[in-house]
């Protein structure tokens, strides 16, 4: 079977239905390097939960190959979204073999990557991961407080000045 047309469909990032069909057709070929690379590349870009679930099911057939590729995304990608989703995917797969990627994620400059790594850290009973998680929680606490204040200020700016009750009542009944 020529796998390249199916791989090309995944690389082109098709609609979810076409992607799921291609992923399912490639599911018996997870031992192929190009197939695994394309599946993992799609998994760090996918937005749809349904597509992600199909990808995780298929990638679970070759967890070692997925762990290597997702770890590479966490360690080397310049895109924080790819790093975050690689960690989420590792967590969804129940991976306990990507300690270095999780520790790296816990120290990542991007808060969303640190949050994803913190979720993955619960799978590890390792002193290094637990120490990094402690440092991360301190940073996340500050990030979450800052984000909350930013959201509050944003919504306060968006609010209209409250109308006088008398004007509101008159407007409703006129």
What does this structure look like?
By secondary structure, this protein is mostly helical. 74% of the residues lie in helices and 0% in strands. It contains ten helices and no strands. It has helices spanning 4-11, 16-26, 33-43, 49-59, 63-76, 80-92, 99-106, 111-121, 127-158, 165-173. α7 (99-106) packs across α8 and α8 (111-121) crosses α9. It is globular. It starts with a helix and ends with a helix.
Order of helices and strands: HHHHHHHHHH
Radius of gyration: 22 Å
Task: State the distance separating the first and last CA atoms.
Answer: 74 Å
Poorly predicted parts: 167-174
Q: What is the overall number of helices?
A: 10
| Category by helix and strand content | mainly alpha
Shape: globular
How many β strands by DSSP? 0
Which percent range describes the beta-strand content? under 5%
- The overall average pLDDT, rounded, is 86
- Percentage of residues in helical conformation: over 70%
Q: Which sheet architecture does the biggest sheet show?
A: none
Summarize this entry quickly.
The chain is mainly α.
Key structural traits:
10 helices; 174 residues; disordered C terminus; 74% helix; mainly alpha
Topology:
Elements: H1 4-11, H2 16-26, H3 33-43, H4 49-59, H5 63-76, H6 80-92, H7 99-106, H8 111-121, H9 127-158, H10 165-173
Helix pairs in contact: 1-2, 2-4, 3-4, 3-5, 5-6, 5-7, 6-8, 7-8, 7-9, 8-9
